[in-house]
Amino acid sequence: MENKNQLRNTLLLVFAALIWGTAFVAQSVGSGYMGPYTFLAGRSWLACAFLLGLMGVRRVGQHRKGVRLPFWLHGKTLVIGGTLCGVVLFAALAAQQIGIGTTSAAKAGFMTALYVVLVPVCGIFLGKRPGPKLWVCVAVSVVGLYLLCLAGRDTHSLTGGEWQLLLCAFVFTLQILLVNHFSPRLDGIQLSFAQFFTVSVLSTVFMFAFEHPTPQQFAGAAVSVLYCGIMSSGVAYTLQIVGQRELDPTIASLAMCLESVFSALAGWIILGQTLSGTELAGCVLMFAAIVASQLPDKRR
């Protein structure tokens, strides 16, 4: 039974990675119709509606079982944690959406996935000493990033969109550390709703301040907004919460970092985006570094 649960939860996380990877294509298509803050506002409000409905369905099930709990649990901590996580998530998603409009889905997926290496590196500031293997992974990922973004160019500098995606990876690192801090004390779905509500409010403010949204924009990007709002933000984050229960964290990380591979495949199959041999080599190195960083060290 335990092995079946492990397999089921792993498959749930692989499916979440598939949704996140293909969402890069939807984000790329959506960027052609509307500004990044408008797209982010649309998908985030949809995610809030989905998560609120999910909490409502769960509450009906609790009442049928005779369980009577307050709708919102640990209110003060939820507000603080949801706001902090949401502000950082807004910065990460905004940087990602700005960057993806100027580069391929494959590059966006692999550069975003660098957070898997950066999270343990940032553990230095929390008193955790990374081993030699992790520093090797960081060096390999930097080489991979060079091959993916700079090799073969006349200029050895990142484009504006690539800088945005690199910033996105760093900010996602902070967001993951914040979620790790607050999630043990909060309901996972409620924390997800609180952070997406914060993202929705901030992106709406920025949308009206810097962009000019129109009904025609939303009509053109409707499929992309729906997919990213319901599937990527709503379903995939819920699958992550459910899938990580009682699952070895190494297996969970390996499953979720497949997002970068799915983004490259989706960009190639759906949008016809191709990568050169050098860029593919960079992808392979970055993915190898991501996977190796999550493998447990051998114990003496």
Provide key terms for this protein.
300 residues; single chain; mainly alpha
Describe the structure.
It contains 13 helices and no strands. It is mainly alpha-helical and 300 residues long. α1 packs across α12, α2 runs antiparallel to α3 and α5 runs antiparallel to α6. It is globular and about 65 Å long. It starts with a helix and ends in a 6-residue tail after the last helix.
Q: Name the average pLDDT.
A: 84
Order of helices and strands: HHHHHHHHHHHHH
Number of helices: 13
N- to C-terminal distance? 31 Å
Shape: globular
Annotation, overall tally of beta strands? 0
Largest sheet data: none
Helical percentage:
over 70%
Secondary-structure class: mainly alpha
Taken as a percent bin, the fraction of beta residues is under 5%
Uncertain spans, ≥5 residues at pLDDT below 50? none
Radius of gyration: 19 Å
Give the SSE map.
Elements: H1 2-30, H2 36-64, H3 75-100, H4 105-112, H5 115-122, H6 132-149, H7 160-182, H8 188-210, H9 215-220, H10 222-243, H11 249-256, H12 259-271, H13 277-294
Helix pairs in contact: 1-4, 1-10, 1-11, 1-12, 2-3, 2-8, 2-10, 3-7, 3-8, 4-7, 4-12, 5-6, 5-7, 6-13, 8-10
